[in-house]
Design goal:
The chain is α+β, with helices and mostly antiparallel strands. The chain folds into 2 domains: about 5-45 and about 160-175, no CATH class; about 65-160, no CATH class. It contains 8 helices and 4 strands, in the order E-E-E-H-H-H-H-H-H-H-E-H. The two termini are about 20 Å apart.
Length: about 180
């Protein structure tokens, strides 16, 4: 019996569904948290047996195993405690952006570096968002398609989706 994963863009969550019948292999279930939200089928991760390659300079995430990735995400989650998405502390926001860059080995581009430095100085995130709108737009098309302000999109982009720990019966969520 296969387990399928589906991503809900509206609440940034990945859900796992158990399909007890192969007749459901092409079905798309409704979101467990809100039936009006759309879901997209994901390619699930799987385990490899063998030696992990060293990361290349081009992609520091290449070859990272699940344990390392979980450790990295746990560090970020610890820093997210008390983070108020509706009224973010600029210094905490800057700290998270620097930490994510550090953990991934990525360097912040020039304008983003300036924006983070100004967040560290306590400047208003909303004003910085207006001033650096072009730099935030350059982060990619996936940020443009999400609802909310650019900084909220950036946080969502950096932290990735939540993973719902439940295993749902696919037949119960399909029409």
């Amino acid at each position: 019996m296969p387990i399928y994963e589906f991503f809900c863009k509206e609440n940034n969550t990945i859900y796992s569904f158990l399909a007890k019948s192969l007749a459901l292999k092409d079905a798309v279930p409704k979101c467990p948290d809100n039936a009006n939200y759309s879901m997209d089928k994901q390619v699930s991760g799987f385990a490899f047996v063998g030696k992990v390659k060293d990361p290349s300079e081009d992609d520091p995430m290449e070859g990272m195993d699940d344990a390392k990735m979980e450790h990295m995400m746990a560090k970020l989650e610890k820093d997210m405690v008390g983070f108020d998405e509706d009224n973010p502390d600029p210094k905490q926001m800057a700290h998270l952006m620097r930490k994510m860059a550090s953990l991934t080995g990525e360097k912040l581009p020039g304008e983003m570096e300036e924006m983070v430095a100004r967040l560290e100085a306590g400047e208003d995130p909303e004003q910085l968002e207006e001033e650096f709108v072009d730099a935030l737009d350059d982060l990619g098309d996936d940020l443009d398609s999400e609802e909310g302000g650019h900084l909220k999109k950036l946080r969502k982009h950096l932290l990735g989706p939540k993973l719902d720990p439940e295993l749902y019966d696919m037949a119960e969520y399909c029409d």
